Amino acid sequence: MDPLDSRSLQSAHAAVRPAGFDAGSALCQPSDWTALLGMPPLNASELQALQGLVVQHWVPAGSFVFTRQQPATQLYAVLDGSVGLGLARADEPFHLERTVRGPQWLDLASAWLGAEHAQDARAINDARVIGLPLQPLRSLLMRQPALQERLLVALAGTVHSLTSVTHGLMHKDAERRLAAWLLQSCEAVGERQGRVALKERKRDIAAQLAITPETLSRMMRQLNRKGWIEVQGYQVQVLDLPALREFAGD
Amino acid sequence: MDPLDSRSLQSAHAAVRPAGFDAGSALCQPSDWTALLGMPPLNASELQALQGLVVQHWVPAGSFVFTRQQPATQLYAVLDGSVGLGLARADEPFHLERTVRGPQWLDLASAWLGAEHAQDARAINDARVIGLPLQPLRSLLMRQPALQERLLVALAGTVHSLTSVTHGLMHKDAERRLAAWLLQSCEAVGERQGRVALKERKRDIAAQLAITPETLSRMMRQLNRKGWIEVQGYQVQVLDLPALREFAGD
DNA sequence: CGAACCCTTGATACGCTTCAACAAGAGTGG
DNA sequence: CCACTCTTGTTGAAGCGTATCAAGGGTTCG
After folding, report:
1. Contacts of B204 in chain A (CB under 8 A)
2. Virtual CA dihedral for A78, A82, A87, A93, nearest 10 degrees?
3. Could you report the per-residue pLDDT of A69-122, keeping only the tens digit for each?
4. Tens-place pLDDT, residues A96-109
5. CA-CA distance, A101 to B14, in Å (whole number)?
6. What are phi and psi of B109, to 5 degrees?
7. Least CA distance to A143: which residue of chain B?
8. Is A39 exposed, middle or buried (0-12, 13-18, 19+ CB in 10 A)?
9. Nearest CA to CA, how far is B90 from chain A (Å)?
10. pTM check: above 0.85
11. Which end of chain B is more exposed for a tag (fewer CB within 10 A), N or C?
């Protein structure tokens, strides 16, 4: 057995916890916008206009940012903390499909369609979330097409990412999906090596890979047996990056 | 066994085939733009600007509109015919992931990311395809934010559709995915009944549902045994719409 | 007519889930 | 401090869902 240095994830998550829950205390920073909308920082007028629209919430861990079948009137983004997108059933425990770790867009699409949200969004940690009400945003964007283009690019990024997920689900088995996921969340250490710090419970990672926690555990072990990774609790060392890439495929 | 009235799909497809392959012969109509960009028809200046940019191709069945790892410089749409998005491997036979039947957008996202196309696009029938070169389009959209907003909404639709696909792949078994697919491509006939005319080979439908043709056949039979559908070749009668909806789930 | 497709059906094999049991921390309260 | 519970991850055995392989029938086309 490998010695499991199971530092609780709780402690890691606690770092994010806000001091208080005042709605308007820690406002959106320019750096937040850059993270959401890309590199050329916003100019003064764009920044001011957005700050005028934005609604900020602190969402305590476990409660919902929005729920399915609730009409979408805002664009949502997560600034700090992480929020899970998935399906809450009366049956429970909340079937996670994707986690969004701030700063990142949460749901850019539903509001534009005048539709209901397609998924439930539930805070995993205490999270700082912003919403941009669609109606005033639209008239702003009519005057600021450069800003609109940035949103368009962000939406294109979502499409790209979703396409890659469906591709994986369609053509890759569990082991390959895990390999691909590790590569994607891996920071290189040397030429052939890398390191992954797992930032969620393994069962949540499993849910996003559409496998059970049991299978995730077994697949980790299999990759380990092949000599490609080393697992110690929530730290994964990638020993053979090229082999893993080759195995994960497209 | 049910009598399979297997009228060849070839004949159905042939209806779309163009008379000749002149590049500029049958230009993009205003109705095409409405189909792509939604209901309020374009005004004269928008229409003229777009027509000035658009590049139209006739793509014969079997050849590629674009291929993976080729830099994306245009937005693509299919006007007539149908194009498959998927993965072409040297190993062959082209692994289909999604078919796009005109008029519909084919790839709105890749170009905006300055990335390569994520999938190969291959004409299933002879298809009429248009491309909008990104660079000139961008400067146009800066002057026509209303047009840009329409693109944004179209992109949001793609996200919505992809989200639904991944949800299905993650949480539904083959039979339920088929039920959902039937409902989605079903036209109502009465209160409880409906009709689906299959417009592709069954193996292509199977590929989109991420199952084998053998399984598709079996699942069709199972839904039939439950008394919910009646299959005759490429015509499917839905006998019990509510039951099918209930079964397909979310 | 044979060749090349397509869809179907049956038998078998495999991947992954499910169910059950267990070990290791973390939080709680006596 | 220890006993207790809750949660998480791990491991093994059994079972379901779907793929794979092989065979056969129906159409279309040369």
Report:
1. none
2. -150
3. 899 999 999 999 999 999 998 777 899 999 999 799 999 999 999 999 999 999
4. 999 999 799 999 99
5. 49
6. -95, -50
7. B145
8. exposed
9. 13
10. yes
11. N
Distance in angstroms: CA A201, C1' D9: 10
φ, ψ at A142 (rounded to 5°): -65, -25
Tell me, what amino acid is at A93?
P
Q: What is the pLDDT of residue B102?
A: 80
Q: Could you give the count of Cα atoms lying within 13 Å of B181 in the half-sphere of its Cβ? A: 28
Q: Taking the CB of residue B98, how many other CB atoms lie within 10 A of it?
A: 19
Per CA to C1' distance, which residue is closest to C5? B8
What would the DSSP string read from start to end of A166-229?
HHHHHH--HHHHHHHHHHHT-EE-SSS-EEEE--S-HHHHHHHTTS-HHHHHHHHHHHHHTTSE
Please, are residues B234 and B182 in contact by the beta-carbon 8 Å criterion? no
pLDDT at A89: 85
Provide the pLDDT for residue B27. Answer: 74
Of the partner residues B87, B112, B158, the one whose CB lies closest to the CB of residue A250: B87
Residue B14: its pLDDT value, please? 34
Determine the pLDDT at residue B26.
62
DSSP state of A116: B
Residue B250 and residue A87: Cβ atoms within 8 Å?
yes
Rg (C-alpha) for chain B, rounded Å, is 20
Minimal-distance CA residue of chain A relative to B158:
A159
Q: Rounded to whole angstroms, how far apart are CA atoms B56 and B37?
A: 17
In angstroms, rounded to a whole number, what is the distance separating the alpha carbons of residues B18 and B5? 27
Q: Is the pLDDT of residue A184 over 80?
A: yes
User: What parts of chain B have a pLDDT lower than 70?
Assistant: 1-26
Q: Which run of H or of E encompasses A158? A: helix A145-171
Q: Which phi-psi region, left, alpha or beta, contains residue B81 (left: φ > 0; alpha: ψ -120 to 50)?
A: left
Closest-CA distance of chain A to residue B111, Å: 9
Residue B80 is given by DSSP the state E
Cα–Cα distance, A190 to A62 (Å, whole number) = 38
Rounded Cα distance between B12 and B228, Å, is: 26
